[in-house]
Amino acid sequence: MDKIKNLALLIDLYELTMAAAYYEHSMYEPATFSLFIRNYPPSRRYFVSAGLADVLDYLEGFKFSADDLEYLEKKKLFNPKFLSYLEKLRFKGDVYALPEGRLFFANEPLLEVTASLIEAQMVETFIINAINLQALIATKASRCVHAAWPKKLVDFSLRRTHGIDAGLKVARASFIGGFIGTSNVLAGKIYGLPIFGTMAHSYISSFKKEIDAFRAFAQTFPENTILLVDTYDTLSGAAKASEVGREMQQRGEKLKGVRLDSGNMALLSKRVRKILQKAGLQEATIFASGGFDEYKIHKVLQEGGDVDSFGVGTKMGVSADAPYFDMAYKLVEYAGRPLMKLSPGKMTLVGEKQIFRFTNSKGKLERDAIGLRDDNIKRGESLLMKVMEKGKTVVRMPSLPEIQKIFLDEFSRLDDKYKSLKGGMEEYPVHLSPRLERLQAQVMDKLKENELGESRG
């Protein structure tokens, strides 16, 4: 896992201006902020937790460098005493969070930070940035996995993701969501992910003849020969690949497979399979790439496509049909006082909270309850774990294969009606605990009376 350091200035300016005002007015009491997603994007009814590891690394290493402070001083926005305060500022708070790979639903807190007001406020932007992207991609990837199951998927998105860091995080998050690996070699090195790749059309066209390109590649990679067959004509390319496959058999080698990258994938994959089988290459696999997402995968397989695995790129790597989540990080308690926002459509849930998950007798996910942190709700599994105390991580962070296993297990226990690729689906049931409902109503009434002059009686 790559350590994230010296990113204290990766914040929005208003984090600093608020912090300066808090400092000026000696507002250092403990504050709790809650991270959640307000609404589902179209055709989605669940989310996959991802990105927590980066958040914990960031919080442990949070500090302003001398260079950061020199930059802020030149802006002439802040009191020198405040900048001196920032020089010594470190994150010393607590974090409760949903482990990576777990499912969550709209308005459920997937992370809560409790620290001094300035500390908890200053880390807002990074937390949203890190978790929004990875949860977004893990959720998109999981939909592709569901559409393809039991076929295997590989991340092919690097060249069209939105920047270098996004390319790395997409590889990581898509693995959490069920992909078997990535074409991104640096992500393979950093995260220990399996790496996959074949060849480009430029490789084929650089040789005088297509079959010469195939033979050269087979000679160089006799144990990993997957041949791209659609540069000129897919069926002709498959026939030449089969010829090379038979030559490999005579040398005691095996053609691992062929790759299709264009055309009518359902029809071509079936014809290519017949060509391979006629040549006695029953073990050769068919790998398909080219504009795939959950919708195209579903269509190809519904039409009888004979594909063993898919390379999924651009549309997954940018979550093309839902490129953002309405994720928010809101103050829910300060100095022991529960707080909420009353804005229409953006009301928040007060206090330090917990998610309780209920399953039926067969282990299937049944419903969730959002309660107060100290609620005692029988049968419900408490999902939010204390992962950081006084600025230090207090749990062992699982490996990516372990996180993927957590996801695949829980995803298999979620009813398929919540995984549909179409709109208008039923929402997974989530309700508030009685204690949270009462506290929510009390705080709302008090705010309306104090801020809006409204009174119930």
Number of domains: 2
Given the helix and strand composition, which structural class is it?
Answer: alpha/beta
Strand order of the largest sheet: 13-12-1-5-3-17-18
The third-level CATH topology of the largest domain is nicotinate phosphoribosyltransferase
Distance between the termini: 57 Å
Strand content: 15-25%
For the secondary structure, the number of strands is 19
Question: What would you report as the Rg, rounded to the nearest angstrom?
Answer: 26 Å
Report on the structure:
Helix 2 runs antiparallel to helix 6 and helix 10 (210-220) packs parallel to helix 11. Helix content is 40%, strand content 18%. The strands form 4 sheets. It has a 7-stranded antiparallel sheet. It has 2 domains: 13-137 and 325-452, Alpha-Beta Barrel (nicotinate phosphoribosyltransferase), CATH 3.20.140.10; 144-317, Aldolase class I (TIM Barrel). The protein is of the alpha/beta class.
In short:
It contains 16 helices and 19 strands.
Write the layout of secondary structure elements.
Elements: H1 13-24, E1 30-37, E2 47-48, H2 52-60, H3 66-75, H4 80-88, E3 94-97, E4 103-104, E5 111-116, H5 117-122, H6 124-148, E6 152-155, H7 164-176, E7 181-182, H8 185-191, H9 201-205, H10 210-220, E8 226-228, H11 234-250, E9 257-260, H12 265-278, E10 285-288, H13 294-302, E11 309-312, H14 314-317, E12 327-334, E13 337-338, E14 353-359, E15 365-372, E16 381-382, E17 385-389, E18 392-393, H15 400-412, E19 430-432, H16 434-452
Parallel strand pairs: 6-7, 6-11, 8-9, 9-10, 10-11, 15-19
Antiparallel strand pairs: 1-5, 1-12, 2-4, 3-5, 3-17, 12-13, 14-15, 14-16, 17-18
Helix pairs in contact: 2-6, 3-4, 6-7, 6-13, 7-8, 10-11, 11-12
